[in-house]
Every structure is written in C-alpha cells, then in structure tokens.
Amino acid sequence: MRYLLIGWLAFISAACSVNDKQPALHDFGLPVSAAIQQGRASITVNAPTWLWDNRIRYRLLFSSPSQVRFYGLDRWIASPPELFEQQLNSSGKAQGYALVIRLQDFEQQFDAPDRARVVLRFSAAAHFIGDNQAIATQEFYLEQATQTPDAAGAISGFTDLTQQATGKIQDWLKGLSGCRE
Description:
By secondary structure, the chain is α/β, with parallel strands linked by helices. The chain has a single domain (23-179), classed as ABC-type transport auxiliary lipoprotein component (Rossmann fold, 3-Layer(aba) Sandwich). It is built from four helices and seven strands. A hairpin with a 3-residue loop joins strand 3 (55-60) and strand 4 (64-76). It starts with a helix and ends in a 7-residue tail after the last helix. Mean pLDDT is 83; it is low at 4-18 and 33-40.
C-alpha cells in the first residue's frame, strides 16, 4: 500500500510538472517610445476581431487551407494590432500626418511542411492632424519566406515585415508632401 501511495504521488507530481509549461511571450524587440507613453501617438491600428488575440497564427495551405491554427508554446506579448501600432508609433515616421491602419492579415502560411512564409496585409489612410477626412489611402501587401518553418521563423519573419512596413509607409507619406496646403 505504501509503495502504491508513493508511486501515485510521483505520477501526480510528474503530471503537474508537464502541465506547468508556460508559453513564451514575444514582441518585435522594440521598446515603447516616450511619445506613446505620453499619449501623443498619431497612428491607430484597427483590425477584425479575430486578430485581437495574442496567439501566433498559422495555416497549412498544403493540407487544410481554411483551418487557422495556433502555436501552443509561443505567443505575442500583446495582440498583433497592438504590437504593430507600437512599432509604427515608436518609429516616429508619420511626418505630421495622422494615420489609421486597418490590419487585414497577419499569419504564417505553410506551402509545404518544410516551407513557410509570413504575410502582412493592411491598408492605411492618411489624414492631416486634427482632420477626420482622409487625404489618401493605400493598400500594402508584404510577405517573406521564414528562415525556419516554425514559431521562431514566424516571430523573426514578422519582426522583419513590420520593419519593412514602417519603411513602406514612410515612403508613401513622402509622396504625399504635394497634398499639403
């Protein structure tokens, strides 16, 4: 009886330690800027309800393209729209415009078990600060093959894509300089 009790306690202890594994939390590796902390952000990111989740999404296009899956042990520290907004605002590159970004896709897609890419699709509307009427809108689609077909590849890929998006938005805004009165 005593050995049975010791064995049972060892089993419960082992089961609890297996279930105690917590997900690793990730961001894009950038600190929050002072402008965001003081509430002077000029860029707002909106997104569909399903993107306000902090799980890292992926899709197996080669076997079940309509099914969205999530990594179990890796998550974003905040939702993709929040992280993207932080990235854009901390760049300080809105150049006197207020921007409204509509995030549409933010997922890793597997074309084969050993080949994946990350996809970032969004639209941007530029406004003069203090004016609600958009002076210009632009659609953006970025994708990049991941270094590895796993969560680490997705995290690295999204870090790169959001930095590329910041540059593309800045280039687009430079082209709007003729719109100023």
